[in-house]
Amino acid sequence: MTNQRILSHFHESAELKIQSATVLAPHIAQAIEMMFSALSNGNKILVCGNGGSAADAQHFAAELVGRFERERFPLPAIALTTDTSILTAVANDYSYREIFSKQVQAFGQAGDILLAFSTSGNSGNVMAAIEAALEREMRVVALTGKGGGAIGKMLTDADIHICVPHDRTARIQEVHLVTIHCICDGIDVALFGGDVNE
């Protein structure tokens, strides 16, 4: 019984990734182009999400500031999930909804990008961050699932919505992880061309 349950997790994850590849690839390619263009122009990427999506935000920022699969200069990305003093001060003095939006207002500039994670598409503090980003003439790349929720409805035509076609949070997060790696690889290829193994 345990083995069968484990196998079902692997099979469902693999099947969703294959199904999502064709659907999401054009949107991921657009996100790579948008991010590469912003980084090339001296702009930065701000990243936010809650829970497992906070970990994804930090993972993405680490890949850009450090490296993905090849040596290169650091790229400017900031995870808005990491400064406990900011997070707790804003949550305590204002509201939890504003923990990311205050940071977008503080750090975001026109031409920057907000990479926003929300598996449900309905995270209030992520929505507030998107509102703040749009007010500052930033572009938004939103990674969601479950139909995209309210976030899908608030994005503009200039933004990119990468919505995993599934309702299970764990599966959505697994596709988000592959998406992060695709974006990091795409940025590296745009910078240097070719393949890391060439």
Automatic annotation (TrEMBL):
Locations listed in the record: Cytoplasm
Keywords: Carbohydrate metabolism, Cytoplasm, Isomerase, Metal-binding, Zinc
Positions of substrate binding: N50, G51, G52, E63, N92, D93, S118, T119, S120, S123, Q173
UniProt keyword Isomerase, yes or no: yes
GO cellular component: a single term: cytoplasm
GO BP term (any one): carbohydrate metabolic process
Assembly, per entry: Homotetramer.
Domain of life: Bacteria
Name under which the protein is recorded: Phosphoheptose isomerase
Phylogenetic classification of the source organism: Bacteria, Pseudomonadati, Pseudomonadota, Betaproteobacteria, Burkholderiales
Catalytic activity reported: 2 D-sedoheptulose 7-phosphate = D-glycero-alpha-D-manno-heptose 7-phosphate + D-glycero-beta-D-manno-heptose 7-phosphate
Co-factor requirement: Zn(2+)
Alphabetized Pfam families for the sequence: SIS_2
Cited InterPro entries: GmhA/DiaA, Phosphoheptose_Isoase, SIS_dom, SIS_dom_sf, SIS_GmhA/DiaA_subfam
Misc. comment: The reaction produces a racemic mixture of D-glycero-alpha-D-manno-heptose 7-phosphate and D-glycero-beta-D-manno-heptose 7-phosphate.
Gene name of this polypeptide: gmhA
Domain SIS, first and last residues per copy: 35-197
EC numbers for this chain: 5.3.1.28
Organism: Duganella callida
Task of the protein: Catalyzes the isomerization of sedoheptulose 7-phosphate in D-glycero-D-manno-heptose 7-phosphate.
